[in-house]
Amino acid sequence: MDSEITRYQCRIVNIKHGSNFKVVEPVNLYSCTFGDDCFVGPFVEIQCNVSIGSRTRIQSHSFICDKVSIGEDCFIAHGVMFINDLFRAYP
After folding, report:
1. Any residues with CB less than 8 A from the CB of 59 and at least 6 apart, and which?
2. CATH assignment, 12-76
3. 56 burial class (0-12, 13-18, 19+ CB within 10 angstroms)?
4. Residue 28, burial from CB neighbour count under 10 angstroms (0-12, 13-18, 19+)
5. Cα(10)–Cα(23) distance, rounded to whole angstroms?
6. Distance between CA 20 and CA 17 in Å, rounded?
7. The pLDDT value given to residue 87
8. Distance CA 46, CA 68 (A)
9. What tens digit of pLDDT does each residue of 42-86 get?
10. Which is more confident, 9 or 14?
11. Cα–Cα distance between 65 and 57 in angstroms, integer?
């Protein structure tokens, strides 16, 4: 076969993190910030401008989109997806 292969690789790009940061790959983490003692499981995507507080655990298959802040001592369960809709449901 002469066709080319298109490859997409998981990446960790331009993140800031405190001490004892643990990550299980594959993950996509880019332009986000983590406090001390954080854990990120596999198959997680965390987009830019996200802030994760110290001692927070993010389990596998979770998605955290742009501009979300998560506090300290939080647990994000398997398969959780965040949204950042800024509309008001009621006037």
Report:
1. 41, 75, 76, 77, 78, 79, 80
2. 2.160.10.10
3. buried
4. middle
5. 13
6. 9
7. 65
8. 9
9. 999 999 999 999 999 999 999 999 989 999 999 999 999 887 776
10. 14
11. 16
Count of helix runs (H) and strand runs (E) in the chain? 0, 12
Domain ranges of the chain: 12-76
**Residue 12: beta bridge partners?**
29
pLDDT tens profile 28-42: 999 999 999 999 999
Distances (CA, A) of 67 to 1, 29, 44, 84, 91: 44, 14, 16, 7, 23
DSSP state of 25: S
